[in-house]
Specification:
The protein is α+β, with helices and mostly antiparallel strands. The chain folds into three domains: about 130 residues, 3-Layer(bba) Sandwich (D-tyrosyl-trna(Tyr) Deacylase, Chain: A), CATH 3.50.80.10; about 260 residues, Bira Bifunctional Protein, Domain 2 (BirA Bifunctional Protein, domain 2, 2-Layer Sandwich); about 110 residues, 3-Layer(aba) Sandwich (Rossmann fold), CATH 3.40.50. Helix content is about 30%, strand content about 30%. The chain has 17 helices and 30 strands. The strands form six sheets. It has an eleven-stranded mixed beta sheet with strand order 10-9-8-20-19-21-22-25-18-17-13. Strands 1, 2, 3, 4, 5 and 6 form a six-stranded mixed beta sheet that branches. Helix 6 crosses helix 13.
């Protein structure tokens, strides 16, 4: 399929005459559409419904960048010399139209099989004209699908809700109806997660609310010059991302993690790597170098396990924890599943493994890490009300370790979703996720851990026991926060949902790009404001000054729109008294105090959190605008 995509001020078209016998019925009337993305589309031999969906999914992503929601599908055979037969072409055109409407796009289509006159005026921005080619969905030499992913699609699971006392209540789903004796009345998010997980439908047909926020706040944006699922991060987004990375890394080091760094690509034919590749349910990117093929890692496992293969480890050193913050991990997710910061093809994953002597030690350490994950999310700013627990295990593991699983539920303090397998499908026998449920009722895993009983043998990782004999350990795989980008997504979705409930949308103060904004009432007080900035900056606080030629009311409004936690208006009165009105975004209150007292309050709020300077000018007049809104 070939598409010429034109973002247009308007298009006028009129069917003139039928070109083929099976042309659709149409009136010879002139029609006009304004502010529309016109898709001149040629259907080629071999195209199918999957191509139509892939095209709409990618086009929808590009429309989010240019802020367009209206499309006109315009059959246009002149783009190709390898056209499909008319009957098949019409079917695929109709599939495109139907699927586009389901995704929420305002969709129009010109009649098929006609010669048409048209007059079009294209907008003047750089992304207004784009040429796209879509191939039939099949595995190409640049995409490898693991055997585990193929098996995952055929998994037959038994689902339950586990109560905090360990009682297991069966679940079944019939269409959109959940059949169970469990009362979800006080567990709405758990119900949403249950429906999402059991349905196993990952495609996204609506724009996630956080996508608009990440652009409005100039945190992140789509990158039209890259592969879909790779984002660009503006200075504010880079700051938030860096702070989260530093915080999680310090938590893991305090836990005892040994921080390392490993390559991002590995030999596809390496025996251990190739075998493991087919035990993890993910699609990989494959690249060629010289005569070899390499895959881009989807986690830190490969490098860490090869490192541990060469290490000499004693039982006295167990559990041994090894850690890397991967910039980046790569998974070739389906284009229809990609959405903003929630699901990407390149992401940052804190990944800490633990080498354990046996299953007993592994379960004990698993409990320690379960608390580590909960503490990490809580200290970041996401509490137990913000996520739901899902636990997955084999039936055999459950039967032998019911009390251990019950102990996790007691720590969690809420019922959890359970997926049970009659036999082991992957390399792990137990896995949990702490899942955020967003405004579209979709679940997204944050923290996770697994008990792995395969990979020590696969990679030749051993330790020397108390009898000086080599033994294969149990390996735990944990990300105490989940992907850093997904944490950012969770904060933005939470802010959106809070706003819908009439609450204040905000980021935690320690993550706010600007923590304090100084608003001089006129140009006369800018020098005085600069002195205040210097006093505040001494305490490692991110502070800026709105020196624009705007009214005080507008400056305060802009501060609110940027979610600045604290705004201080300064003028003649403040210059004389040294008492300042502190506008507190969270409460909406204004409290008067000296700067020294305010800083003590602020420092307590961000205590034990990392600090990084914002790489933007302190003067708003000197800051570029990265995202243009019309």
């Amino acid at each position: 399929m070939r598409i010429l995509q034109l973002h247009s001020d308007f298009i006028e078209y009129k069917p003139i005459k039928k070109e083929i016998k099976m042309a659709e019925e149409s009136k010879k009337e002139k029609k006009r559409l304004e502010d529309v993305v016109v898709l001149f589309t040629a259907i080629e031999d071999g195209d199918n419904e999957s191509v139509a969906r892939k095209a709409i999914d990618e086009i929808k992503s590009s429309l989010e960048v240019i802020k367009a929601k209206r499309i006109l599908i315009y059959p246009y055979a002149h783009l190709s010399q390898n056209l499909a037969k008319p009957a098949n072409a019409l079917k695929i055109i109709k599939d495109m139209e139907s699927y586009a409407k389901k995704t929420g796009l305002e969709t129009y289509r010109t009649p098929f099989g006609w010669c048409k006159q048209f007059h079009i005026q294209i907008k003047g921005h750089p992304l207004a004209e784009q040429s796209k080619v879509f191939l039939p969905s099949k595995i190409t030499e640049k995409e490898k699908v693991s055997q585990a992913l193929k098996r995952e699609e055929k998994i037959k699971s038994k689902w339950f809700i586990m109560k905090t006392n360990g009682e297991m209540i069966p679940l079944k789903i019939n269409g959109n109806k959940l059949i169970t004796d469990f009362n979800f009345e006080r567990h709405e998010n758990l119900k949403k997660l249950t429906m999402y997980e059991m349905a196993k439908r990952r495609a996204v047909h609506e724009t996630s609310p956080h996508v608009k926020l990440m652009r409005e706040l100039e945190i992140a944006d789509f990158e039209p010059g890259s592969d879909p699922g790779n984002l660009r991060y503006y200075p504010k987004g880079r700051l938030i991302k860096s702070l989260l990375e530093q915080f999680v890394t310090q938590k893991v080091i305090d836990y005892g993690g040994l921080e390392v760094e490993t390559p991002v690509m590995y030999d596809l034919e390496h025996p251990s790597l190739h075998d493991y590749l087919n035990r993890f349910p993910a699609r990989q990117y494959v690249i060629k170098s010289d005569d070899k093929e390499f895959f881009l890692r989807f986690s830190a496992c490969f490098g860490q396990f090869l490192m541990l293969n060469n290490a000499t480890i004693s039982y006295k050193q167990l559990p041994l924890k090894i850690y890397e913050l991967t910039r980046y991990s790569f998974r070739r997710e389906k284009s229809g599943e990609l959405v903003g910061l929630r699901r990407l093809r390149a992401f940052t994953m804190p990944d800490v493994h633990a080498i354990c002597e046996n299953l007993d030690q592994a379960m004990e350490e698993f409990g320690v890490r379960f608390n580590l994950s909960r503490d990490t999310l809580n200290e970041i700013g996401l509490n137990v009300d913000d996520y739901e627990l899902a636990i997955r295990f084999t039936k055999d593991f459950y039967e032998k370790n019911k009390e251990f699983i019950k102990s996790l539920l007691k720590i969690h303090g809420k019922p959890a979703l359970v997926e049970m397998w009659d036999e082991r499908i992957f390399y792990f026998i137990l896995k949990y996720e702490l899942n955020f449920v967003d405004a579209l009722s979709k679940g997204s895993a944050l923290s996770t851990d697994q008990i792995d009983i395969e990979n020590s043998k696969r990679y030749g990782i051993t330790f020397v026991d108390e009898n000086s004999k080599k033994q294969y350990p149990i390996i735990l795989h944990c990300s105490p926060s989940g992907a850093i980008e997904r944490v950012m997504y969770a904060f933005l979705e939470k802010a959106y949902m809070n706003e819908k409930k009439g609450e204040i949308s905000s980021l935690p103060t320690w993550l706010s790009p600007t923590q304090v904004r100084i608003v001089p009432v006129s140009e006369r007080y800018i020098k005085f404001a600069e002195k205040i900035i210097k006093e505040i900056e001494k305490e490692n606080v991110r502070v800026d000054i709105d020196d624009r030629n705007l009214t005080v009311e507008k400056k305060i409004r802009y501060s609110e729109l940027e979610w600045v936690p604290y705004t201080i208006v300064v003028g003649e009165k403040e210059m004389k008294s040294k008492i300042f009105p502190i506008r507190i975004r969270e409460s909406g209150q204004v409290k008067k105090m000296k700067i020294s007292r305010f800083l003590k309050i602020l420092k307590k709020e961000v205590e034990n959190k990392p600090f990084i300077k914002l790489s933007l000018s302190k003067f708003l007049t000197k800051r570029p605008k990265f995202v243009a809104w019309t």
